[in-house]
């Protein structure tokens, strides 16, 4: 391992920046959902009025935040993993395991992205709306599927390139 980590190439730097932005965007969505929930509670229990659209928007914001935030969590190695097997392997075997797991993750997310885009496009082209009073055009909340999975795929590819170039530093746990 070199004394100084290899500087990430331009692609990895761009993806890291995009993943950071996606994390802040997801955080803003969660914050918006929290404020909207507080507003909804105030309207229902203090003003004794009905809420029409708030619950639906809160659900859409939370699901969208989860999907859009995937790349940020991946960048910061925050997804749940079990490294017991990797710790028992040699460094070379661990690197091979990294290559296999990153390849599998890229494949799975690429398939999910394909079907997520297809689902979003179907909702958009057929003019689907929610079955509520507000009749939200469903392509809007469904857009989080291809966007979030696309960002996740980019981050996985950047991580995979780091593993391949041995720029990936082993984190101490």
Structure description:
- The protein has 173 residues and is an all-alpha fold.
- It has one domain (10-164).
- 71% of the residues lie in helices and 0% in strands.
- It has helices spanning 10-46, 54-68, 70-75, 84-88, 91-125, 139-142, 144-164.
- Helix 1 (10-46) runs antiparallel to helix 2 (54-68) and helix 5 (91-125) runs antiparallel to helix 7.
- It is elongated.
- The chain starts with 9 loop residues before the first helix and ends in a 9-residue tail after the last helix.
In short:
The protein has 173 residues and is an all-alpha fold. The protein has helices at 10-46, 54-68, 70-75, 84-88, 91-125, 139-142, 144-164.
Task: Write the SSE topology.
Layout (H helix, E strand, L loop, with lengths): L9 H37 L7 H15 L1 H6 L8 H5 L2 H35 L13 H4 L1 H21 L9
The low-confidence runs, each spanning 5 or more residues with pLDDT under 50, are none
Q: How many individual domains?
A: 1
Order of helices and strands: HHHHHHH
Form type = elongated
Calculate the mean pLDDT score and round it: 90
Short key terms for the protein model shown above:
about 70% helix; about 170 residues; single chain; mainly alpha
